[in-house]
Amino acid sequence: MTTDHLPETTPRRGRPRDAARDRALMDATLTELQLHGYGGLTTAAVARRAGVSTATLYRRWRSKEHLVIGAAGVWAEDLGPDRDTGGLRSDLRTLLHDKATALDGPSGRLLRAILGEAAHNRALADVLTQEYVAPLQDRVATLLTRAVARGEIPPVEDPVVVGELVIGPMITHTFLIPHTPDSRPGAEVAERLLPYLLRALGARTE
Amino acid sequence: MTTDHLPETTPRRGRPRDAARDRALMDATLTELQLHGYGGLTTAAVARRAGVSTATLYRRWRSKEHLVIGAAGVWAEDLGPDRDTGGLRSDLRTLLHDKATALDGPSGRLLRAILGEAAHNRALADVLTQEYVAPLQDRVATLLTRAVARGEIPPVEDPVVVGELVIGPMITHTFLIPHTPDSRPGAEVAERLLPYLLRALGARTE
């Protein structure tokens, strides 16, 4: 292992051995957040779970906050690329199931664990916007533009609200209602949302 | 002050002096949750902020968890009674603005502060369902039944999803996007949601 110092604020992409260590630290962070919430998370517990020393952790992430923000980077990988499936219904279904998969997995657990903290932590709030909200809004806008161009729906006056209609009900269904560890609430509600969203957009549903 | 012991798990409604003390404890709990999240909240800080001794706090609430669950009881007062305003559009607008007012106030801050904790605290999760989700779902169902009876919309196949479409977008708009301390994101998005919800329900929007 090299002993050179990493920049304090800009994580770099490391060699394969570093990438594996990063992944272990991220997984450990998610697990600790899920178990104890942001307030209960300690860098010592994360390092122990990841099998690295606290010194190693601090060489990579200089604070608890940077560690959690780094973990939030997993979001960017969640929402696979936009795919043109040829029609609004299948485009929307694909997006709903992509988001459901994310919400039912580590990314959803992370989101839930840091929502409270983000209320009074501007750095976390900004990560939420950049890594979570903006990619979703972009993908919704792209999908709607295609549907309008195909003549499937009239022009959409408020695509931001449509984005909230896509993600909001899945979040409340996942976060506000108790579920069993094996249930997949996001996926369950995605299919039920589809006809309502299509009607809301003015699409013919048959 | 009497020295008799209160039941450990069932808070009773007290005399006026006790009610004022309870209110101060609840307000202090909400403030501490907002400032520090569930993990950072201590009963000592809540007692100090409410101007009571820790012993007094523990006579009323036997643990941090019971204190927070008691604070969650403010939800029951949030969602005023159902009102028949004579039409689906105005019924729905009234409900949206009632929920927006709640989300933009202490109840929304409490919800945000405990969402992460509720993921691994079944008692809190159950309070969420009983005090927050169930009253909303009941009120949505009542409103839809009236609209169907008036012939404004066809029968609703999935009133639970309609409830999530009412509350979900307001929650994501409030929790996921940074706002200024003075902004009222719930109220702002309520009016924008209305035409989409009416179309989703199959109502004529003109």
Give a brief rundown of this model.
Chains A, B: Residues 42-61 bind DNA. 2 copies of one chain form a homodimer. Chain A has 206 residues and is an all-alpha fold.
Can you put this structure into words, describing what you see?
- The structure is a homodimer of 206-residue chains.
- Helix content of chain A is 70%, strand content 0%.
- Chain A is an all-alpha fold and 206 residues long.
- The first copy, chain A, is built from ten helices and no strands.
- The first copy, chain A, has two domains: 57 residues, Homeodomain-like (Arc Repressor Mutant, subunit A); 127 residues, Tetracycline Repressor, domain 2, CATH 1.10.357.10.
- In chain A, helix 1 crosses helix 4 and helix 7 packs across helix 8.
- Chains A and B meet through helix 1, helix 7, helix 8, helix 9 and helix 10 of A and helix 1, helix 7, helix 8, helix 9 and helix 10 of B.
- Molecular shape of chain A: elongated
Mean pLDDT rating of chain A: 84
Oligomer: homodimer
Biggest interface between chains: A-B, 51 and 51 residues
Low-pLDDT parts of chain A are 1-12
First-residue to last-residue Cα separation of chain A: 61 Å
Helix segment tally of chain A: 10
Major pleated sheet of chain A: none
Strand content of chain A: under 5%
Which structural class fits the helix and strand makeup of chain A?
Answer: mainly alpha
Rg from alpha-carbon coordinates of chain A: 19 Å
